[in-house]
Amino acid sequence: MAKDNLTAVLYGVEDLRLEQRPIPEISDNEVLLEMDCVGICGSDVHYLVHGRIGDFVVNKPMIIGHEAAGVVVKCGKNVKNLVVGDRVAIEPGVPCRLCQFCKIGKYNLCPDMVFCATPPYDGNLTKYYRHAADFCFKLPPHVTMEEGALLEPLSVGVHACRRADVGLGSEVLILGAGPIGLVTLLVAQSMGASNIVITDLSQNRLDVAKSLGAMHTVLISKDKTEEQTVKEIQGLMPNSPDKTIDCCGAESTTRLAILSTRSGGCVVIVGMGGNESKLPLINACAREVDIRGVFRYCNDYSTALALVASGKVDAKRLVTHHFDITETAKAFETSRYGHGGAIKVMIHCQPRDKNNNKPF
Questions:
Q1: What is the C-alpha separation between 206 and 215, in angstroms, rounded?
Q2: What would the pLDDT profile of 78-98 be if each residue is shown by its tens digit?
Q3: Cβ proximity of 54 and 37 under 8 Å
Q4: Contact 279, 252 (CB under 8 A)
Q5: CA 36 – CA 272 distance, rounded (Å)
Q6: pTM of this prediction?
Q7: Measured between alpha carbons, how far apart are the two ends of the chain, in Å?
Q8: pLDDT for residue 1 is more than 60
Q9: What is the reported pLDDT for 272?
Q10: Domains, in order of start, for the chain
């Protein structure tokens, strides 16, 4: 096996380095993966810029990256679901499987979750990485490695739409047209939403959302009051949105979500903003607007893969930039500042298309 295990390691704020790391040893229930590609998530950038997200603080060097796909090169002796050569998408969070949350099927709430690139645990922007075999999903031959990596953000969209009970005829408002807002748009369409309005501060991102099938877009502007924006959103739907998904999590967008949603509707908060927000809760209570949180995803990877494999969701349209792992610094700069209209930036640990049966 090659000894090259080039790895992207975050040492602290604005301190991301490339270095060689030992190729990891695997346990009986794990597989060793030759990593193919890793997408850059907003959380990765946040750790680089701020060194923490809430209570998760980078106190020691941490391998970055968690949106990933790779190829199995070694299997532990207990692994039955995979063989050497399988191309897989990696669900990056591995729970304990024993606590009450795991036992009732809500393993995303497991207090002992080991999640890639969430301190103190390492991520997978590295040439060789070990992972629990039961949290690796074999890709059909026609699904590319890049699409496999995109299953991570797509699973967030699946979980959000399920939490909102999006279904046939739903009128959906999505706040935020970043990568998570856009995958939520794609999933809501696949689940039968009849009308989707999406908002953002950037007209460029709204144009992308329109090209992906959003019926209406609303540009958030300081020149408009909250009341004016609510009226604009509600005017784009016959009955106002019955499902609202806040992919920003800022106080302003969560307020907008509650005020824009029709009575008896549902607001789902995906984005994570400040620890505390001033919200119109009496308004929500008086109109029986449900408010639900989202934390990552749970039992959603298989669904995300099915949506991509069937062609119902064309997630690859979100990938705007490609870089080699040796260009990690440039890739992060592109994602951080949105250079060239960046939406999803993909870092390749192997030559591009090496493991694809068709060009991406």
A1: 11
A2: 999 999 999 999 999 999 999
A3: no
A4: no
A5: 29
A6: 0.96
A7: 27
A8: no
A9: 84
A10: 6-138+314-348 (3.90.180.10), 157-293 (3.40.50.720)
